[in-house]
Specification:
about 45 residues, mainly alpha, 1 helix
Length: about 45
Amino acid sequence: MKRKPISYSQRKPKEEVNKKGVIWVVSIFAAIVILMAVLLIVNG
């Protein structure tokens, strides 16, 4: 019973890090797209 919680707790942080990484990449990409759209609208 002691081994299962350890393996479960070791797996969870990896998934959280992956999710945070994906969220960061998506948010940065979205911010760049929005900035480009704003610049095009302002310049246009």
